[in-house]
Amino acid sequence: MKKLNRLAIILTVVLFFGASGLGFAQEVLKVATDATFPPFESVDPDTDECVGFDIDLIKAIGVEMGAEVEILNTAWDGILPGLINGNYDIVIAAMTITEERLMAVDFSEPYFNASQVLVVRKDDDRIKGLDDLTGMVAAVQIGTTGDLEASEIKSLKRVARFNYFPEAFMELQNKSADVAIVDLQVALDYMKNNPEGAKIVGEPFTQEQYGIAIRKGRKELLDQVNQALAAVVEKGIYDEIYTKYFGVN
Length: 249
Prior knowledge:
Blueprint: H1 2-7, E1 28-33, E2 36-37, E3 41-43, E4 50-51, H2 53-65, E5 68-73, H3 79-84, E6 90-91, H4 99-102, E7 105-107, E8 112-114, E9 116-121, E10 137-141, H5 145-151, E11 158-162, H6 165-173, E12 179-183, H7 184-193, E13 198-201, E14 208-210, E15 213-215, H8 219-234, H9 237-246
Parallel strand pairs: 1-5, 1-6, 10-11, 10-12
Antiparallel strand pairs: 2-3, 3-4, 6-15, 7-15, 8-14, 9-12, 9-13
């Protein structure tokens, strides 16, 4: 549990089941994700398969539940409506647990602490933090926490909203936007792949937690997911996946 203690995520679920699995009632667990958000989820160009932290985590959870995991790459703007409509069982997509979303769906125990940051072009020294955004254009992915936060920054000239985060970063690089507002780990991954193109300025300015979304009324499934998540943490599998994508804190 060492890693999650550092993340300040507390799983309160009691483990009733062992390594043999949780006896999931279905053979296949249908999982929706929006694979445009590396390193949490993206499409491997060589295999066309979804990969990333969330994908590895949900596959490990599936093993604990005794279920085969089927990943469905789904557009972000329709991902929760699809869940509510019963198109799939759960959603794992670096999704922040918010009061508004909790009115529509249930969430598992938190599995990741996140925060929003400001990303600017590497050669742009105008912006040092939130106080420097007056008259600026911010690029975001529509419907994300970054979008919600940008909407609250009244000093911005405009918020440019895109279906996918790569489009928001392209808007920044094309100088059509002054700043991108994005999750910290996504920003770090982008900078790793574009070392000359962008930098983070200021400090992270939100505290968020990601959860696995489940349609309301499926308490048994919610309990099974929580139990499996707790098992993945207890066995050290979460630490292995975290280190693979983010290194050791």
